[in-house]
Structures are given as structure tokens and as C-alpha cells.
Amino acid sequence: MIKANPKELQEVYKLVCSLQWDLGRDQSVKDRAKKIVEFLGNNTYVTDIDSSTIDGLKSWLLNKKLSQATVNRYLSALSTMLTFCEDRPEVYNYKKPKIRWLKEPKHQLRYVTYEEEKEMIRLFNSWGMQDDKDFFIMLIDTGLRLSELQNLKVGDCFNDRVTLTQTKTNESRGVPLTKRCQEIVKRLSENKTSGRELFEHFARWRPNSSWRKFRKAMKLENDKRFSIHACRRTLVSRLLNGHVPEKVIQTWVGHSDSRMIERYGKVLSNTLLDFVEVLEQ
To answer: What is the DSSP track for 21-84?
Structure first.
């Protein structure tokens, strides 16, 4: 049973899960938050967490040889729990300490090229992995987050689009479907009631496993940037290079901050190449 107004960090974690993270957030967020609770102690009072506590957490994470970006993901999970308490002063009377984020190095944004996608489809066909092929085609053509596709219900699928209600930002949105995705949705929706997941037959661990197999076959196992998230960047890259307005892309992929699309535009777009002829005159 979850306490209505808990003071212990473990109970706050459970409450945030039930009211926020269970509504569409990636499982990895909850896993990181759980590790934080275990490190700080289940019975630690939220009101006892100050800047020195957070510094100790950062030191522990860095000693585990985690990257600055990964440490920041942990700090983000802690920040969410502390903000939850700060927003309820009548219960906690708590002022969240300032979190000093680690500076993250800028990495090249990786996406799936058309040649890599063609080889991916060929490999999955040769391995008899139809479900895996369908899953990654859907990720590439829709730009959905991994958890969004895994949680997608049959009742949220229509002829030419899907509607998402369980999202990272807790904001519902509609996403159009390409013809090949329409065929996949139609096939996987057959004989399923509206409340069932479209990919319910596809185990939650399977995407990571099949992606590792594909990456190894492509001799890209050492390219850590070539992760499943590259499928989402692929959609953004193709829309940008198709001269789709950034605001439309932001709505499509469900980014709450337009700066992310602007960053993608600077790196993934070939638009500047359209003007290089000016220098050739």
C-alpha cells in the first residue's frame, strides 16, 4: 500500500511511479530512480536531501565509470522526485537544492541511412525475424519512442495514423502512418480487441536483443551512437531534408523543447547544400 503523504524517499518513489512514471515513461527512468533510492537509503527523509547528498550521489555514479550524460539521467530522475515534493509545500515544506548538472560532450548525431535500413530489412528477412523487421520499420517511419510503440494499443490505431496517450511528456498526439506502416498495423490488429497492445506478442526485451544482433552483423557493435534511438533521429533527419517545418517535426515527435529540433537541424539537415551553388558562380 502506498502512503498518501510519504516522507521517506522509498515511498515518494512509489508515489511518483504511480502518479507519473507509470503513465508512459521509459522503464529505464524508474530503474535509475530505484538505484538512487537504494544508494541513499529507503528510509531517508526527502527533507534531509541537500546539496552535499547530491554531490555524494554524483561521486558514487562517476566512480562506477558512468558517462557524464548517464549521470545526468540519474540526476534527472532524482530531480523529478524532489520537485514532486517541492510542489506540495503543505505536505513536505521542502525547498529542492540546486542540482549542478555535469557538462556533456557533444557527440555526432547518428541515424539510420537508407543503405543501412535496406540491409536491416534484408538481414531480418534472412533470419526469419518478421516481427523484429516490423517493429523497427515502425520506429523509423513514425519516430516513436521505444516505450511509446511498446505501449501502443490497437484501439489507438487507425487507417492512416496512430494516437498516443502514454507519452514521455504526458501530452497526447497523433502520428501519421506511411503505407508500409499502415499494412503492419492492419495485419497486427487482426483478431485483437482495442485494449490489447499492437506488439503484445513482441517481448519487451526483444528490441534491444535484435538490435544488438543487427548491429553486430553490420560490424557496428563498437558504434555506441548507433542505438535504437537512431531510428527516431532517422525520422527527424528525413523530415528536415524534405523541408518539413521544424515546428511540424516538433509536434510529430512530441518534443516539448524546440531547441532539440533546432540542434538536429544544424547537424542532420542537408539544406545548406542547396545553397552551395552560390559559391560556384
So the answer is: ITTT--HHHHHHHHHHHHHH-TT-BGGG--HHHHHHHHHHHHHTT--HHHHHHHHHHHHHHHHH
By CB neighbour count within 10 A (0-12 exposed, 13-18 middle, 19+ buried), where does 230 fall?
Answer: buried
Residues 6+ apart with CB under 8 A from 195: 153, 154, 155
Question: Cα–chain-centroid distance for residue 67?
Answer: 18
Q: Which of the 8 DSSP states describes residue 173?
A: E
Rounded Cα–Cα distance for residues 188 and 228 (Å): 22
Of 26, 233, 269, nearest in space to 146 by CA:
26
CB 146 within 8 Å of CB 208? no
- Structure confidence by residue, pLDDT tens digits, 112-143: 999 999 999 999 999 999 999 999 999 999 99
Residue 212 DSSP label: H
CA–CA gap between residue 102 and residue 69 (Å, rounded): 7
Q: For residues 230, 236, 239 and 241, what is the CA-based torsion angle, rounded to 10 degrees? A: -80
Tell me if the pTM is above 0.70: no
Cα Rg for the chain, rounded, in angstroms?
21
235 phi-psi bin (left φ>0, alpha ψ -120 to 50, beta other): alpha
For residue 218, CA distances in Å to 120, 209, 212 come to 9, 15, 10
Distance CA 213, CA 207 (A): 10
Task: List, in sequence order, every beta strand (DSSP E) within the chain.
Answer: 161-164, 173-176
